[in-house]
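From the thread on structure requests for the teaching lab: each student submitted one protein with a one-line request. Submission from student K.M.:

"Model Type II secretion system protein from Salicibibacter halophilus, tokens only."
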Amino acid sequence: MKKWTKTTDGGFTLMEVTAALLLLSVVAAGIVPLLSILYTERVEVQAEREAYRILERVGYELEERDIETVTVSDTSYVVRHQNEAICIYWKGPAGRDKEICLEFPP
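Reply posted by the TA:
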């Protein structure tokens, strides 16, 4: 004689749900800092591009030993004519000091 057993496939067990939430939280804990770093580096690259634009615009206008300060979107750029090069200095969004020097023909 066969015994009839009632089986139910009504959903997930508590252990399965707990394991899934744990896995999701571990993945999120790894991704959030990575996204923060990527955002900061993207802003750094934008600030560097702006520095090149400023150098291109201001570079030919500066006289010997001139200094000019340009502020763009909360970042102050200091452009200096030094020796035979024109340099631009600024503090990047990540707090790093940055510098780019280019030589312009006289």
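TA comment: Helices lie at 14-58. The beta strands are 67-72, 75-82, 85-91, 97-103.
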